[in-house]
Amino acid sequence: MTPQSDHPALLLIVSGPAGSGKTTLCDRMLAEVSGLQRIITATTRPPRIGEKDGVDYYFFSREAFQEGIDNGEFFEWARVHDHLYGCLKREVRDKLARDIDLILNIDVQGADTFQRAVDSDPQLRDRVVSVFLTPSSLEVIRARLEERGQDERDEIERRLKNAEAEISQWVYYDYCLVSGDRETDFFSIRSIQYAEKLRNRRKKPRPATPQASQE
Fold first, then answer.
1. 70, exposed or middle or buried, with CB in 10 Å at 0-12, 13-18, 19+?
2. Number of Cβ within a 10 Å radius of residue 201
3. What number of helices (H) and strands (E) belong to the chain?
4. In which element (H, E) is residue 84 found?
């Protein structure tokens, strides 16, 4: 029997604490890896100027989103600043069925909910690869948050406290990538994706070793 050359589409989950660089890394993957697409999430917030439904987000009314929650249509969802955000099951399943590789940039809490849902789905659990991206220390996270200049001091301290708790979650991921410089991080995650695409997901157990013949 000859090896099969087809490799199934995969979903790459990238998670980590604030300041880990996961958004920058995911954006570069989308820009430079052919055929890779992001998961389009659903939200109840109104579209901003230039945003299109089904391209930037799936824009739901509050009532429609709640109905989706009640019907189990989301892998995970959360309330952020009085708006709801979530990952639709059909968005993931339809694209993987069409052999489209996906990447999902998600916070640690959302990743936990998402992976618990996927682990109970035999059609998807072998198609998901999770990567935890973390800086080498809380001091590095602080420096990155301060360098961004987007948050007040109290918000930075809150994010650092959350990051300290989130870092302990790395043990629940397939890979833990300690962030270095941007080029090294990109090479590492690109290598993970490439290797996982080649991994034999139909691996069979080896037969028992036959005993030596007795003369």
1. exposed
2. 10
3. 7, 9
4. strand 83-88
Element (H, E) at 92: helix 89-97
AA letter at 173: Y
CB distance 77 to 114 below 8 Å: no
Distances (CA, A) of 168 to 50, 67, 106, 172: 39, 34, 16, 9
Which token pair is 206? 């080896």
Q: Which residue has the tokens 């100027």?
A: 49
Whether the predicted model's global pTM rises above the 0.85 cut? no
In terms of DSSP bridges, do strands 11-15 and 102-105 run parallel, antiparallel, or are they unpaired? parallel
> Which domains, from first to last, does the chain contain?
1-36+101-200 (3.40.50.300), 40-98 (3.30.63.10)
pLDDT tens digits, one per residue of 61-115? 999 999 999 999 999 998 877 899 999 999 999 999 999 999 999 988 889 999 9
Burial environment of residue 197 by CB neighbours within 10 A (0 to 12, 13 to 18, 19 or more): middle
User: How would DSSP label each residue in 11-78?
Assistant: EEEEE--TTS-HHHHHHHHHHHSTT-EEPPPEESSPPPTT--BTTTBEE--HHHHHHHHHTT-EEEEE
Terminal alpha carbon distance of the chain: 33
Three-state secondary structure readout of 148-193: HCCCCHHHHHHHHHHHHHHHHHHHHCCEEEECCCHHHHHHHHHHHH
The pLDDT of 7-13, averaged and rounded, is 91
The number of angstroms, rounded, from the C-alpha of 42 to the middle of its chain's C-alpha atoms is 16
